[in-house]
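In response to reviewer comment 3 from the previous cycle, which asked for concrete evidence that the modeling workflow produces usable outputs, we include below a single protein chain processed end to end. The sequence was submitted unchanged, and the resulting structure tokens are shown without manual editing.
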Amino acid sequence: MTTLTRADWEQRARDLKIEGRAFLNGEYTDAVSGETFECISPVDGRLLGKIASCDAADADCAVENARATFNSGVWSRLAPTKRKATMIRFASLLKQHAEELALLETLDMGKPISDSLYIDVPGAAQALSWSGEAIDKIYDEVAATPHDQLGLVTREPVGVVGAIVPWNFPLMMACWKLGPALSTGNSVILKPSEKSPLTAIRIAALAVEAGIPKGVLNVLPGYGHTVGKALGLHNDVDTLVFTGSTKIAKQLMVYAGESNMKRVWLEAGGKSPNIVFADAPDLQAAAESAASAIAFNQGEVCTAGSRLLVERSIKDKFLPMVIEALKTWKPGNPLDPATNVGALVDTQQMNTVLSYIESGHSDGAKLVAGGKRILQETGGTYVEPTIFDGVSNAMKIAQEEIFGPVLSVIAFDSAEEAIQIANDTPYGLAAAIWTQDISKAHLTAKALRAGSVWVNQYDGGDMTAPFGGFKQSGNGRDKSLHAFDKYTELKATWIKL
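The workflow returned the following structure tokens.
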């Protein structure tokens, strides 16, 4: 475990060399247009560097390279055991460069350095190694046939994959997709968010160092409306995978329909209910969990527990416990290892969060904690974790994804009412239930329209459990063996003997 101090990290930040170019066919290169955009750190507003602003011309180059590499078979037809070994080396290189990658992630996105170092980088490495380990253990099928027929059901890599990943967990979300996509033999074009592209750009070189052939992994930084759109409309991209907002997810579905009917797998927004019943086994644990569920990663989490549903009979007792627990989540300098709440990703997102806080005031909700921008003197983008009580589920702050540390508290009187409120949203990504009644837990979990339901905890699970949503939270699943379905085609071969 590292013992680096804030001063150590700040010195490393001053010494850090930022790579901002695209990665095509195994080499860093400028955008075809030569255009760049500025990468500004939310920590203190400093300019980190100029980033290649890729567009349709770069997408064409990347797809051409990815297709040629795929068709060559240098990776797509490599034995699964050999792809496994390479993916494990790739994961090992992430671990070896953990401090560099964590620093890039924190400077770029604003999250606390301790989270980057101990959660994001290890999680990313595990996603790569877990998928690599699995690939030579996934078997094809033999159909039940007459004695003179042989029916084979085989999986093949889908081809060229476009992967568009979000800014809130830039490295880990990329590796959730790179793990199964690369392990199954595809060529991948990774498009990181323009808000946090640095780790994606850096790991491209590590992939080649690990032994992944040139052209198999390409990275195109740039804007969604330029290079992202170009990948969505490209007729030679076979599959598009995306994590981000529901609005952009819908647009990508349109692009797929307008082009080649490419498969589109989407993990979109959330407005997750955290339901605390009066018979919760440990109210103190539930309160601490409710605080972390909205404050962790500055609330910039698709599964953030942004709606706290509390049984009315315990609300007057429970809410003060949550307010007290939230006091331990204080925004501070993200390069300080003691900081547990960092900066919001940029000024635009900060202003969005502040506008939702104003909406809560104007709609009549009662502010009981936080609610202000702080640390303005740093030049960074910091907002206090915030709680509104007296929220109606019809209010804007209860219906729309804020993607910031703003919690809406809603009272209920019965399990049926809790389920109705929980499901009364366009989203269906995650939910949590706190009760010691096993029957109530199971029945409520079954009734909730969400891809993940956690009982007596928030945000449980690991790489063995699928992750994804119902309704407008998207389709498809990351993590687990189910993720491999997105990156493979099933082929039936029927042979007369």
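Residues 172 and 253 are 24 Å apart (CA to CA). We consider this sufficient to address the reviewer's concern, and the full set will be provided in the supplementary archive.
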